[in-house]
Amino acid sequence: MENLKRLFKNLRQLWQALLMLCCVSFVLACSKDDDGEKAKPVPLYDYTLFSFEELFTTSTEDGLAVTRDESGRVTSIESFQPGEDITEKLKSAPASFEDISHFFPLSEGNELRLSEEGELDPYEPQPNWPQSFQNFQQYYKNVPVSNGLARMFYYLTPEGKRMSYGWFGPFVDVNSLDPKPSITEQQACQVLADYLDTKIGNDWTCTLTVREYSMKKEGKIVREVRLIYTVIGPVTATKPNTEYCFVPRCYADVDAHTGQLLTISFPENM
Q1: Residue 127: its pLDDT value, please?
Q2: 3-state SS assignment for residue 22
């Protein structure tokens, strides 16, 4: 009987090994073209999918002017609107992000971290110009969320800070995404290198983030949330862009779970 159990155990292990070998062989075969050469990665998303106008609506909630996107997520909050008495409105305006946090219901694992704060020094002072600011960054299980930003502006009143207005991501309610990547940074860089048919450069960078892709399909907005590596690759021009003063580089988003190339962009289409 013991010999029989041992035989079945060995057969099961052999079957698992053969199955794994078949899976690896299949993946390798799919990565090559008909001539046996390594196939060039094809981006999953076409940038034309992201080219659409989203409708935003503004309403008064809790005495504040609240603007939401088509999914109902808050994108901006103003303590007062043109024509209103600022002095009176500031008496009841929010004093911190905590006072408006109920507008941003996020699942467990999401958090906002203060990333920067200070006083404003406008180069062209204007009437009713805010005097200080705070910036927040959204994280999901310690991974930063792309565009999950909050920027709040305050007046400094005798009673303390009072919010003038705030701009928000909008925040992405991430709730079921595995924050642990399945591929390495080196492998993500190699995806871009394969696309460009080049070698990974020493000056390339790779950053792990959570990103939401919003697109319009069949007249409806579809949003997909992924764990990605953003790879910043080689320089694509001989001199910096004079308008934005940055060195043009190639950017690629790579799915950190599957290794799929999601987007590829160059300065001319950014």
Answers
A1: 53
A2: helix
List CB contacts of 222: < 8 A, sequence separation 6 or more: 214, 215, 216
Look-up: residue for tokens 């390339």? 204
**On the CB side of 127, how many CA atoms lie within 13 Å of its CA?**
3
At CA 146, angle to CA 140 and CA 152, rounded to 5?
90
CB contact at 8 A, 261 and 254:
yes
Beta strands in 124-248 (DSSP E): 132-140, 143-157, 160-168, 205-217, 220-235
Around 248, how many Cα atoms within 13 Å sit in the side-chain half-sphere?
Answer: 14
- From the number of C-beta atoms within 10 Å of its C-beta (0-12, 13-18, 19+), residue 113 rates as exposed
Burial 8-25 (b: 16+ CB within 10 A, else e): eeeeeeeeeeeeeeeeee
Residue 181 tokens read as: 């990547």
Tokens of 203: 């000056």
Q: What is the pLDDT of residues 113-168, one digit of tens each?
A: 999 988 876 554 555 667 889 999 999 999 999 999 999 999 888 888 899 899 99
